[in-house]
C-alpha cells in the first residue's frame, strides 16, 4: 500500500487503516522524507534556526497493546544528516493482522514526503 499524506506546518496526527496479514512482520517505509524546522525551540544550541530535529511517532497494536516507535529526522541542512531522505521502521511480528497505524508528526516544521509504503512479510515456515 502506498499513500501520500496531507502534511502541514504544525505537529499533527495521520492514521491509516491497513489490511494486514496474520503471522507477519509489518514495515512502514518513508520515501524522500525531508524535514525543515521552523522554531528555534527545537534546535541544539549551536545550530541555525532552521536546522532542527523533527520526529515522527508511530503507534500500532502489538499483542493486544499499543506500541510506539520514534523516528528522528534531521534537517537537510544538518551536518549529521548526510543527505538521508528514505527511512523505515519494523513494526514487529504480529500473530493477528495489523489493521491501523497512526503517525504523529510531533515537532512543528515543514515535512515533505513522496510516499508512505506499508509492507508485510510472512514469517510462516521460518525456523525459530
- Sheet with the most strands? 4 strands, antiparallel
What is the number of strand segments?
Answer: 10
Strand content: over 45%
Class derived from helix and strand content: mainly beta
> What's the overall average pLDDT, rounded?
77
Q: What is the helix fraction of residues, given as a range? A: under 10%
Ranges with pLDDT <50 over ≥5 residues? none
Number of domains: 1
Q: How large is the radius of gyration?
A: 16 Å
Helix and strand element order: EEEEEEEEEE
| Separation, N- and C-terminal Cα atoms | 28 Å
**How are the strands ordered across the major sheet?**
1-10-3-7
Summarize the structure.
The chain has 128 residues and is an all-beta fold.
Task: Tell me about this structure.
With 128 residues, the protein is mainly beta. The protein has strands spanning 2-3, 12-17, 24-31, 34-37, 53-62, 65-74, 87-94, 100-105, 109-112, 115-122. The protein is 0% helix and 52% strand. The strands form three sheets. It has a four-stranded antiparallel β-sheet, with no helix packed on it. Strand 5 (53-62) and strand 6 (65-74) form a beta hairpin. The two termini are 28 Å apart. The model has no long low-confidence stretch (mean pLDDT 77).
Amino acid at each position: 500500500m502506498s499513500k501520500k499524506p496531507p502534511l502541514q506546518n504544525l505537529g499533527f496526527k495521520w492514521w491509516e487503516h491497513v489490511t494486514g496479514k496474520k503471522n507477519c512482520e509489518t514495515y512502514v517505509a518513508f520515501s524522500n522524507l525531508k524535514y525543515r524546522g521552523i522554531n528555534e525551540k527545537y534546535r541544539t544550541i549551536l545550530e541555525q534556526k532552521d536546522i532542527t530535529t523533527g520526529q515522527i511517532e508511530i503507534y500500532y497494536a502489538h499483542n493486544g497493546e499499543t506500541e510506539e516507535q520514534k523516528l528522528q529526522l534531521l534537517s537537510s541542512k544538518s551536518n549529521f544528516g548526510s543527505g538521508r531522505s528514505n527511512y523505515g521502521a519494523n513494526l514487529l511480528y504480529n500473530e493477528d493482522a495489523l489493521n491501523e497505524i497512526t503517525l504523529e508528526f510531533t515537532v512543528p516544521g515543514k515535512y515533505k514526503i513522496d510516499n508512505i509504503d506499508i509492507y508485510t512479510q510472512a514469517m510462516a515456515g521460518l525456523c525459530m
